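Field reference: sequence -> structure
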Amino acid sequence: MSDYTAPEDHQLVLDNIDASRELLAETCLELGNTYGPCGHEQPVADAVTAWYKRHGMDSTQQQILPDRSNVVARLKGSGGGKSLIFNAHLDTEISGPDHDNLMESDDPNLIGAWREGDKIFGHTVLNDRGCMSVFMVMGKALYDAGLPMRGDVILTSVAGETGMAPVDEYQGLNYEGKGFGTRHLVDHGVRADYALVAETTSWSKSWLECGAVYLKVTLRGRNMYTPRLIREDALPDHPNAIVKGAVVATALEAWAVDYEERNSYISALGEVRPKAQVGAIRGGVPYRPNRSSPVCKLYMDVRTIPGADQDAVIEEVRAVAQSIDPAAEVECYTAKAGCEGANVEPLSDSVEAAFAQIVGGQTPPPQVAHTSMWRDTNIFNAVGIPSLTFGLPRGAAAVQGTGNFELDDLVACAKVYAKIALDICG
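Structure field:
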């Protein structure tokens, strides 16, 4: 650890965090219950800004759109030290009419947060406003301690990390995700020597994340009235594009299984498994099923390993679709590359030392999902800011909206983050 601040100063920060235990829980609930649906995060950005102001800390907003902003708070050092960004995202899964209608779900786990004893529930908190609350309270503890830091500690809350992309009638920058806010952050001058992306990782570290390609596969048919329907023998000639779509979706599922196996590998951080699936389908008019659909569209998410030839992946999908219907159209509507960080070792070592002091032992290896998804480390690492993702456990994660935070873990994570900040920036 740095010797710029004395051990008793470090303890003062940790004591401040202990004294903020209830504030940490309250902040999780406040942010988790601020409704700002994905693509319209401004209310959450305003809540974060107001929180900093209440606690005497300065912050600014980077206005990207009228209803999408980043928030940046900076604990400025005296100079001569390393700077560190803590980064978390304001957006969560989609909610509101689109989600309720298209997914047939009004799951309150997605749009609210609640407390039962020392457990905090709600998807908005789990992804990602809980980890955001952790570093906000950590930043307050540093600020209140008034320690003479050399480097800047920069606290960033960004829009547009989750996986959206404009397509069809869903157009405009309100539908941009996967690094949208963090890219704006770094492109407009918010940079540092290192960046820690605060997400749930079950105490593991990762600086390798996959990219993603979103594809639209369009099948064509003809509008035919049911009593006059003529089924052709050859599938490419079938008038109902939905029938073609069902066969193509099945073939793409088989391809996805093979693709995952062919591209999985063991990295220095653990196993990487890029998965793929058809996540949406459109075709026909629900209230008028007496007509064959002249169009069926499949929407696919394909994860790609760092360094992958994403154009080659698109061509693989096109070949599968056209093997069933030569007229199938395949369009890419987003392609975001994965990245493996370089020169992350000083930050990694700092995380390891802080974890050993606060929690005990060594950090566990990352889960396959943690090395195979998108996180905004991709943006930082791509622009040369060594970055890793690290955070606390969240319980069950495979089913959307499940799991919870333990308040003890939230407090421990705030202390780990504080130790990292003192080490890197002190």
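Note: The first helix runs from residue 7 to 19.
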